[in-house]
Design brief:
This protein is mainly α. It has one domain: Lipoxygenase-1, domain 5, CATH 1.20.245. Helices cover 50% and strands 5% of the residues. The chain is built from 23 helices and nine strands. The strands form three sheets. The protein has a five-stranded antiparallel sheet with strand order 3-4-7-8-9. The protein has a two-stranded antiparallel ribbon with strand order 1-2. Strands 5-6 form a two-stranded antiparallel sheet. The longest helix has 41 residues.
């Protein structure tokens, strides 16, 4: 049974077990990442047989896909060798012209670069097990989809409502009038709360990376959107992109571009997609979920006994997180890993962005409801459809109620909290410079603050990670729609208005395939489910069991409601349906 330290009948044994845990779970500062991490993975944190088996099945699928790709590559190279030997101008033609095959008439090649042809042919080089997706056939970067991904994409936390366009983003009212072409104005949109900004300034100092001698490009764009007035052709408040500036400051290398700018507009949207995917992967996914949660997990293992009520509550939400982070340090973050070769910046720059996300973390602004208010997107009248908010808000409320009911069982008043030495030790280690070193945690000095902290952790490990991780393959697996990096700089007014200019931004085909396989693997492994808790500590106490049953019934109801909302959306957003949300960060 869970027990507070002041109520444990065997305190000496409890203290000894905690001392042993502190010897196994030790903080150290990661030499390159620069944040506190677990020094060595204890045996009890390793992946179990089920996780290994599931990962093995994924590895077989991806291995089969890689063999299929190599087979296609070998066939292509063989055709090239035959053409070099027997084709027009080949060796056979020069040595024995009479034996050379007759040249068949061919249609003129399409005016596309080799990189665009490789991207267009990507699906045909995939094994069926990996290629079973419908979104690959969608038009890449179509305006409505581009706007929708700001509300329901891999990074739905960037957009914010603004009252005026920033001075360093000189969008004119005339430009807005021409783009919207329905009489709407910049002043009207701002005054009615319909003006929204996407800002990827976190990438402003990111140095460009390189791959196989080819430079990669990453920018820090600004993008302006207007929630349109209702019309016969568009639903009320449908979001429309009106302008993009591919840097934080305007100038000849960063003009304001709009949907009337042809291929340059398409290139500007690609700049935004690259920026959004890099901020998502480095700050939101690796920083805010994986390595931030690791700090809470290590401190909890060191300071909370296994029978402490908070440890009992958190354990299912911390399952496999330390193990997957250890794997990420060995494979994902190293030289030649996905962060180095797939993403747009240098490896050092990418690691610095992860570090900044952890070091700059502040609990207050990160709470779900506070974040919505801070970004001005809690107003459903101004923005009626926002799946992250619409599905996330009732989930946040359900998690808060469950955590509150659970904590009330063990802390009937402030006196019980104040007497809990292990809780004080955990909170102290979270802010200790020699521990987790979190400076933005704030004062957790009453039960209300404690419940908010624990609700944040449960929500982050489950709903947040689910939304940003499991959407990756569907939304970012198809490279032309959302590349991990651009291979040409942002457009300027001098950039030719020709499809070949956009083609040059696309990733080489081998990286495009690696991006798809990486996000496929990320989006396929689910080892537990939100609402699943072990019997011990949850079913053997009537009050806790009753609260858990209420929570599970609420999750079931929210699943039905989310699926119903999804039927009326422009595109499906299933990532916050409770039946699909894992309980922990384990992939």
């Amino acid at each position: 049974m869970p027990s507070l330290p002041q109520h444990d009948p065997r305190p000496t044994r409890r203290q000894r077990q905690l001392a042993e845990a502190r010897a196994r779970y030790r903080f150290c500062r990661h030499g390159e990442l620069g944040v506190p991490v677990l020094e060595a993975l204890p045996p009890e944190e390793r992946f179990g047989a089920r996780a290994v088996a599931s990962a093995g099945r994924l590895a077989l699928e991806i291995g089969a896909n890689q063999l299929a790709r190599r087979g296609v590559d070998r066939a292509r190279r063989a055709r090239e060798r035959v053409r070099a030997w027997a084709g027009e101008g080949g060796l056979l033609t020069r040595v024995a012209p009479g034996l050379a095959p007759t040249r068949r008439p061919t249609t003129p090649p399409a005016s596309r670069s080799s990189r665009e042809r490789a991207a267009a042919a990507l699906r045909s080089t995939l094994a069926p097990s990996v290629a079973r997706w419908s979104d690959a056939r969608r038009p890449a970067l179509e305006d409505r989809l581009f706007a929708w991904e700001r509300l329901a994409g891999v990074n739905p936390l960037n957009l914010r409502r603004i009252e005026r366009v920033p001075d360093h983003f000189p969008v004119s009212d005339e430009l807005v009038r021409r783009v919207l072409a329905d009489g709407d104005t910049l002043a009207a949109a701002a005054g009615e709360g319909r003006l929204l900004l996407g800002d990827w300034g976190a990438l402003e100092d990111m140095p460009n990376g390189a791959y196989a001698g080819q430079p990669k490009f990453v920018h820090a764009p600004l993008a302006l959107f207007v929630a349109r007035r209702p019309s016969g052709a568009a639903p009320a408040r449908a979001l429309a992109p009106v302008a993009i500036q591919c840097a934080q400051r305007p100038g000849p290398r960063a003009p304001v571009l709009c949907p009337l700018d042809g291929v340059r507009w398409r290139m500007a949207k690609t700049v935004v997609q690259v920026a959004d995917l890099n901020v998502h992967e480095l700050q939101l996914h690796l920083g805010r979920c994986h390595f931030l949660v690791e700090l809470f997990a290590v401190a909890a293992r060191r300071r909370l006994a296994a029978t402490h009520p908070i440890m009992v509550l958190l354990a299912p939400h911390l399952q496999h997180t330390l193990a997957i982070n250890e794997l990420a340090k060995r494979e994902l973050l190293v030289s030649g890993g996905e962060v180095d070769e797939l993403l747009a910046g240098t490896r050092a720059g990418s690691l610095a962005l992860i570090r900044r996300a952890v070091e700059d973390f502040e609990l207050g602004p990160a709470l779900f409801d506070e974040d919505l208010r801070r970004r001005g997107l809690d107003d459903r009248d101004a923005l009626p459809v926002y799946p992250w908010r619409d599905d996330g808000a009732p989930l946040w409320d359900a998690i808060q109620r469950w955590v509150g009911d659970y904590i009330d069982r063990y802390y009937p008043d402030e006196f019980y909290r104040a007497q809990d030495t292990e809780l004080r030790g955990w909170l102290g280690e979270l802010v200790d410079r020699d521990g987790a070193g979190l400076s933005g945690l704030g004062a957790i000095d009453d039960l209300t603050a404690l419940k908010r902290l624990l609700s944040f952790l449960v929500f982050t490990c489950s709903a947040l990670h689910s939304a940003i991780n499991y959407s990756q393959y569907s939304l970012a697996g198809y490279m032309p729609s959302m590349p991990c990096a651009a291979f040409a700089p942002a457009p300027t007014l001098e950039t030719p208005d020709a499809a070949s200019a956009w083609d040059e931004m696309l990733m080489p085909p081998e990286l495009a395939a690696r991006q798809l396989e990486f996000f496929y693997r990320q989006s396929r492994l689910r080892l537990n489910l939100l609402g699943e808790y072990p019997r011990a500590g949850f079913s053997d106490d009537e009050r806790v069991a009753a609260a858990l049953q209420r929570f599970r019934r609420r999750l079931d109801a929210l699943d039905v409601e989310s699926r119903a909302r999804d039927q009326h959306r422009p595109r499906s957003y299933p990532w916050l349906q409770p039946s699909r949300i894992p309980a922990s960060v384990h992939i």
